[in-house]
Amino acid sequence: MPRVVKPPAGEAYASVEAPKGELGFHLVASGGNKPYRLHVRPPSFINLQALPEMVQGHLVGDLVAVIGTIDIVLGEVDR
Hints:
Elements: E1 10-18, E2 21-29, E3 37-41, H1 43-48, H2 51-54, H3 63-70, H4 74-77
Antiparallel strand pairs: 1-2, 2-3
């Protein structure tokens, strides 16, 4: 028999230190047996935001090397 979890009404944010950065979860619950909203904050999405600053003054061909240095997972970013 599956276990039913009823989170209390309110908001909660929890994070863990992942190998590529902070992995965060934001949960909003209304008191029912399903959360109202769940948002996952992957580390690659945040790390990609630094890309414009990192490539300032570089050539377009250097972009591939810079993306490789921040080691992003594009599957996390493509939402």
